[in-house]
Amino acid sequence: MSVTAETFGNPFVSxxxxxxxxxxxxxxxFGATGDLTQRKLIPALFNLYLDGFLSRPFTVIGYARRxxxxxxxxxxxxxxIEAHSRRQSENPELLERFxxxxxxxxxxxxxxxxxxxxxxxxxxxxxxxxxxxxxxxxLATPPDAFPKIICALQTAGLVSEHGEHEPWxxxxxxxxxxxxxxSAKELNRIIHSVFAERQVYRIDHYLGKETVQNILVxxxxxxxxxxxxxxxxxxxxxxxxxxxxxxxxxxxxxxxxGIIRDMIQSHIMQVFTLIAMEPPAAFDATxxxxxxxxxxxxxxxxxxxxxxxxxxxxxxxxxxxGGEAVQGYRQEESVPSNSMTxxxxxxxxxxxxWRWSGVPFYxxxxxxxxxxxxEVGIVFKAPPHLLFxxxxxxxxxxxxxxxxxxxxxxxxxxxxxxxxxxEVRILPVRMDFMYSSAFEAATSEAYERLILDALTGxxxxxxxxxxxELSWRLVDRIIENFASSELHIYEAGTWGPEAAxxxxxxxxxxxxRL
Length: 514
Ligand code: BG6
Prior knowledge:
With 514 residues, this protein is α/β, with parallel strands linked by helices. 36% of the residues lie in helices and 20% in strands.
């Protein structure tokens, strides 16, 4: 089956999309020489600019320790755009104009002098923009710098107000947001000593992915699926985030956090709550986040022994991916040779509420798996009585709805069909919706959506204070149990430890093939 987007050429749709326009602003990026700025933030801003979403005057000020001139910073960002932007402009003048809006201030995160220089630049830029000093601070630094920067911004008098109207001040905070519930609460306390919650945008780039957002549209803009979205019809849910890459150059960070903090606490919990939440009263930040928080509150609190049986942690050993030999986690640069850090976690969770009572949610995420794929599988119950023999000889699940979040974003529904012929023989077939063939427009990058939302004051796709604290509650419990649970070494290029297969096999189920 093919699906086409009938409305995409519709002028109303284009008008609606353009209605979301950033006003005039100054964006200060802390950590401007880092990987995130070069690979994601500047390319995202450039694409927003090309699409006409940044039509009012703006300035982007990079702030980092290293001394460098504006010209040097612009040259580096030009190279970053050439290397990482999803597209280049056909009109070279647009790139020049975009680069002209970039400036650079050198300063440490600790000393006041740097922030004073920053303040002067912000004042000059506001004067030049001829607009109120709307200012967005973006923390793209290692997390230990967050508290220092936040406090220094206040001391320097850079945060102007707590209201919703112009001129506004906002702050975008990158992950990881704390390393446990206690530190997340402390970070929230520090942030709130300077910013009101409505000024805070805790970013999780998974929420900026089109297919993640489409989960809610699919569920709530169609009438045929939501009636089935519960324990009566759904056997279980699987969420898998597989990566073929290893830790690469990020071992220093990763070895401290493991996959449980890096992926489960943030990205997987976000996808999980969108799948499980109740329909919100409205499509706005408060209503949606209220419902996500209710899911987290309803997570079953398992006793230690049961929790231990519901979690499998693994670490990749040497192996091969795509025919290429790759080293094991402990052989990676900067990883201690006796590291016990998890590069794979699989788990089974339950939500104790009316909708989901008794329905297991199986979540898994791992590095150095055979391929990069993120998918949600909703596995429906088998028909109560099967009249037909299955030709494929399997007793597998009949109806599976898959949200493919990446790559090849789309949605697939599998069902049984009669094979052509005189006999009644049945075989599973699929209905496919692919974003790339249904919509002409290229899917924008998650950071484009999220930066524009923060600039326009829409916090729907950002994590709220209570949401991050509650997701840490689960992760803290798991980590407490990690110390005494076995670390399974799996061969790189396989789908993770055997024990993860057993986690489902014990329940008479198996992981969906990705
Ligand atoms: C980041 C994690 O948040 O997400 C990385 O820190 C991970 O370890 C990355 O590789 C995955 O993001 P994506 O968009 O490539 O799935």
